[in-house]
Write a structure and sequence with these properties.
The protein is mostly beta strands. It has three helices and twelve strands, in the order ββαβαβββββββββα.
Length: 160
């Protein structure tokens, strides 16, 4: 984080702040009660936009070689398998969509240790990027209904 951040005008009277883009906020003096989808970008109650100068940080060699680092800016990630953490449990799933901060994943349900199945009704949720542990190869069938994550990968991620 830079040492000298610019001051957001009327900071003391701001009641709601929303950010969807790095370095940019939308703020209001009154909270918007629009629907969830609209409230992120609505222009109700005289909302204002403020931009900070976004500074790119150079990653260290260790970060660039981290196999679990997911390239969120790349739309090719859609359709890939991943493992997410939800309520301190690990679930495999397929990435459906993504934005700057979240990823939509269609998840399997757990039936035991490294045993999963597809529910009858799709279980699709938006997760923060940091809740995605890593991408994985597709789960493999164990029975006609149950699947498992590669045993070596399961061993690594379950010990985190």
């Amino acid at each position: 984080m830079p040492n000298n951040l610019p001051v957001v005008p009327s900071t003391r009277s701001i009641h709601q702040v929303v950010t969807l883009t790095p370095g940019q906020i939308i703020y209001r003096h009154v909270s918007s009660l629009c629907s969830t989808k609209q409230s992120m970008e609505c222009q109700c109650y005289n909302s204002k936009t403020f931009s900070f100068e976004v500074q790119k940080t150079a990653c260290t060699q260790d970060e660039s070689q981290n196999p679990s680092e997911i390239p969120w800016q790349n739309s090719d990630i859609i359709g890939q398998w991943c493992c997410v953490k939800y309520d301190e449990e690990i679930y495999p799933g397929v990435i459906q969509d993504l934005n700057e901060t979240h990823v939509s994943v269609k998840c399997m349900h757990r039936i035991g240790v490294n045993r999963f199945f597809w529910p009858r009704q799709d279980d699709v949720l938006w997760y923060l990027h940091e809740d995605v542990i890593r991408t994985i190869p597709p789960a493999t069938s164990v029975t006609s209904r149950h699947m498992e994550i590669d045993k070596d990968i399961w061993s690594k991620i379950s010990n985190l």
